[in-house]
Amino acid sequence: MQTTWFSLDRKWRFTHSLQSVLPKFLTHETVYAFSKGNGAQGAAMLNFDDSAWEEVTLPHDSQHELPFDLTGIPSHGYLPSGACWYRRTFLLDPSDAEAEIQLIFDGISGISDIYFNGTKLLHNESCYNSFALSLSDVANFGVTPNLITVRVDKTTWEGWWYEGCGINRHVWLVKRPRLHIVKDGLWIKPVKVSEDKWRVDCEFTLSNTSANALCGTLHASSFDPKGTEHLAITLPVSLASYEQRAYCASFETSKPDLWTLDSPALYKLHAQVISEQGTDEATVRYGYRTIRVDGETGFYLNDIPVKLLGTCNHLDHAGVGSAVPKDLWRYRLSMLKEMGSNAFRCSHNPPPPELLELCDEMGILVMDENRSYSTAPDALQLLASMLRRDRNHPCIVMYSLFNEEPMQGTAKGRRLALHQMAELKKLDDSRPILGAFNGGFFEEIGAGICLDITGINYYVDSYDDFHQKYPHQPMLSTESASAFATRGQIESNTQAQVFGNYDEDCAAWGQTARDANISVLSRPFVMGLFIWTGFDYRGEPTPYEWPSVSSHFGIMDTCGYPKDVYYLYQAFWRKEPCLHILPHWNHPKGKRVRVMAYSNCEEVELFLNSRSLGKQLNDLANPPSWHVPFEKGTLSANGYTGGYCTVTDKRETAGTAVKLCLQSLMPTLYSDPDSVIAVTVFAADERGLECPTAKNRINITIDGGDLLGVGNGDPNSHDPDISSSCNLFHGRCQLLVRAKHGAKEVIVRVTSHTLQSSELTMRVTDRPFPPALMPTTMRTIDGWRASHHALSQRPDPTITLSTNDMNSMEPITFEGIPQRILEDKDGMYCLYQTKANVGDSSAKHYLIISRARGFVEVFGNNILLGSKHCFIDDRVEIEIPSSYVGVCHFSIIVQNHTVDKRAGILDPITIVSAP
User: Fold this and answer.
1) Please, which residues bridge with residue 318 across strands?
2) Is 659-765 the same fold as 179-276?
3) CA 389 – CA 176 distance, rounded (Å)
4) How many other CB atoms sit within 10 Å of the CB of residue 495?
5) Which residues lie below 8 Å from residue 289, measured CB to CB, with a gap of 6+?
6) What is the sign, positive or negative, of the torsion defined by CA atoms of 838, 841, 842, 845?
7) Which of 114, 189, 702, 724 is deepest in the core (most CB within 10 A)?
8) For residue 268, how many other CB atoms are within 10 A of its CB?
């Protein structure tokens, strides 16, 4: 066999309703059954009826779908929390019984319990870790369905920000040979040994999950960015039964293409383990680059000084909560890069894997951050999990152990940091390690200077003093600014809880965007800064509370639409000439409007309807501004450097809004769950100019796709994310649309009571993506007990065992062969009994025995429902009366009247529902 990946993202069943894996009634029988290895009850049972649950596609965040609640937690956006449940079935081929079957979760937001076929496989307490579970020992093969049940509990939290609740990252099923590479089992470490030569150290962690010793050959090849193989190694491997072992190898190369910010060259290492069982495969991308930090001169990438121009970011987006598809991350990261940002801080947790993949591709430097500042076994395991998953990414240039921990400046905090750092460097000693301090960094007994880098949150007035005291200690502004702005808003309004865009408002502990940049860019010993934050996010509506439900910190709003301050960062961070004038140019006649220019040019000249209003020297600390009486027309500006006009910008007065317009922010819509299109809806005048003050309510219909959610960036909006209508906020809103499974095109239509409607058609395109493993509609009836010997007399089907009798009948499963007790027992009987949840009466239900032999009689609640002579393997299908709802008692009698004197039930018994 060969390793095959499947997507399990589609067609999960989901509910917010209260469920339990405990028995509904506590008798000796139910307590006894629950105590067994696969004894979880309720939603973890194969025969549980989930027909009333809704169907969802992953990634999925259930919390943002709930209404805002004044009694909720402001930090979490006033959204209620609780528990939710997911169920998913699938079938495995009989041949898969010889394979290693793995279930991989990229992440679950909440404390989660994962059950498989009634067996509890994992209790996980982090929202941010990825993990793999082996299903091989308890999987069903053939016609018996397999069931994954996940309970997610968000009554507690890991973060003081909005985290969401649910399976908000991908889920995969992998079939591979028993001798295989473990998840995250490839570690590629390029080391520069001279000007032209590199040594590449490789570690391959293999596992044998069979009961026998296995041997084979490990072959690994490295491919350059053009796909040409340039290096290869081969090793013999041998593992004892159930052994895991690491194999190491090194090779050398000369003058590889370097991973840089502008040209991020990515290599691939493809590894195969070839054995008698088949071929296991794994591929990782890596890059050749060096990183170095210096206490005097900052950060170096490939020995070239680089100022880190970064943003801190949480993981949610308007309309979808924390379940952000990969293509939406691509859009968000491209907006940051267009702004001039070159770095991304994962605040304050490991990010989704696809975010790191995109940063690798786009040349964005990443600070990967640990969530738990602890050396408890669980915390160290989570730290190790982050390292193993992420360490091959060339984009990651540093690890952060913590953010603003109360113990940071104490001896206890130092011991924790040293212990975590030691554990981390066992797995990766190639990157510097830091902590993000909001105090205590001067204390010699604390963690401040025992780390490779001292990260300082805010406290800009401490930079010089810290550098003077510790001149050789590298320093980084890990969190800065916390400035406020509301997209489209001109002046701040405390009563309305909104902020202007003139870069004048910030948190009591923070700085304006100008002050934050100047304090770092003017000091070569501060290697860079990470602005709080790149995007608005749910929760933390500082400095306000209700009705504000999202933050005001972002350079962009929750939809990823730039606020005016976005262009101020461009002026600080980009080398190319840039110029942006604010605000828009729709105001009451004669009103004096403060006009400001954000630019990196030497001078800026402002014009109104081609009349010069004056030229000013540009100072980023105090941007040029004019007070201009409003008149309709065109407000424009020229930026001059060296006496030449190098860039222009303009604002035009929009007329009355007459129509809606649609614009996709993604060029292509794909058929896989990674894909989404973010569609901007805006009101325009008859010339097509966007109307910046429009606030119309729009209605949305979608053909061929699903509307995942809507948003408009209003931090005070209480409209639901999941809705077919939305208000424009300062002229625009955003729709997030995914293609339905199998759709060839998606049509988006928007209407409004007073505006001309608009329509957008997107063709759906395929791209490489693991195939979907679809669920089955069958519900297996389990929990059967059978006669432990053949009966000479026809048994009484109405017999009921005492609830404390676990031994008069034996537990049985049906696995493709007749029951041994009836073999050569012509005319003798076997009795089978169980209880099963039939479901409600809204659908027809059928009891199906796919294969049986003998004379079969089926009883429900002591009534004969049907019978059939099966002289050879035959199918038995019995309609269950509509009066049978909920839990029913089933008995089956099989008499050995067959051709070969072998009788019984061969395949699992299922319930199939029909409308």
Assistant:
1) none
2) yes
3) 19
4) 5
5) 190, 258, 259, 260, 301, 302, 394
6) positive
7) 114
8) 16
Give the integer Cα–Cα distance in Å for 266 and 247: 24
The whole-number pLDDT of residue 46 equals 86
The radius of gyration of the chain from alpha carbons, rounded to an integer in Å, stands at 32
CB atoms within 10 A of CB 713: 25
Amino acid sitting at position 749? R
- How far apart are the C-alpha atoms of 708 and 723, rounded to whole Å? 9
Q: Report the topology of domain 587-652.
A: Immunoglobulin-like (2.60.40)
- Give the start-to-end residue ranges of the domains of the chain: 4-176, 179-276, 291-573, 587-652, 659-765, 779-914
| Whole-angstrom distance, CA of residue 437 vs CA of residue 405 | 7
DSSP state of 435: E
Give the C-alpha separation, 407 to 454, whole Å.
15
Cα–Cα dist 485/32, whole Å: 60
User: In the CATH hierarchy, which fold is given to the domain comprising 659-765?
Assistant: Immunoglobulin-like (2.60.40)
Q: What is the pLDDT of residue 29?
A: 83
Q: What are the tokens at 911?
A: 């319930």
- CA atoms 354, 360, 365, 368: torsion sign: positive
Helix, strand, coil proportions of the chain in percent (round to 5)? 10, 40, 45
What CATH number was assigned to the domain covering residues 4-176?
Answer: 2.60.120.260
CA 427, 429, 430, 433 torsion-angle sign: positive
> Would you tell me how many other CB atoms lie within 10 Å of the CB of residue 468?
8
Q: Collapse the DSSP code of 362 into the 3-class scheme (helix H, G, I; strand E, B; otherwise coil) and give the result.
A: helix
Give the CATH number of domain 179-276; options: 2.60.40.4070, 3.40.50.11930, 2.60.40.10, 2.60.40.1640. 2.60.40.10
Do residues 566 and 339 make contact, with C-beta atoms less than 8 angstroms apart? Answer: yes
Is residue 103 within a helix (H) or strand (E), and if so which, with residue range?
A: strand 100-105
Block means of pLDDT (10 residues each) for the chain, 915 residues, are 97 95 86 87 90 95 96 95 96 96 98 97 96 97 93 94 97 98 98 96 98 98 96 96 98 97 98 97 98 98 99 98 98 99 98 98 99 97 98 99 97 98 98 98 96 98 98 98 98 97 98 98 98 98 97 98 99 98 96 98 98 98 98 98 98 98 96 97 98 98 98 98 97 98 96 97 97 90 92 94 89 91 95 89 86 96 95 93 90 93 93 80
Among 538, 536, 544, 541, smallest CA distance to 495 is for 544
Decide yes or no: CATH 3.90.980.10 for domain 291-573.
no
Please state, in angstroms and as integers, the Cα–Cα distance from residue 92 to each residue in 82, 143, 796, following that order. 33, 8, 37
Q: How far apart are CA 487 and CA 580, in angstroms?
A: 15
**Local structure of residue 521 (DSSP, 8 states):** H
Between CA 413 and CA 891 the distance in angstroms is 64
Q: Which amino acid is at 850?
A: S
485's tokens: 């702005």
Residue 56, classed as helix, strand or coil, is: strand
CA-based torsion, 691, 692, 698, 700: positive or negative: positive
Which are the contacts of 550, defined by CB distance < 8 A and separation ≥ 6? 77, 536, 537, 538, 539, 541, 558, 715
Residue length, the chain? Answer: 915
Tokens 């090779």 belong to which residue?
A: 251
- For β-strands 526-532 and 475-481, DSSP reports them as parallel
- Rounded distance, CA 723 to CA 99, Å? 44
pLDDT at 768: 96
Q: What is the DSSP letter of 98?
A: G
CB-CB contact of 176 with 209 (8 Å): no
Side-chain-side CA neighbours of residue 8 (13 Å):
29
Q: Please report, as a single letter, which amino acid is at residue 454.
A: T
Give the bridge partners for 41, in sequence order. none
Is there a contact between 310 and 277 (Cβ–Cβ < 8 Å)? Answer: no
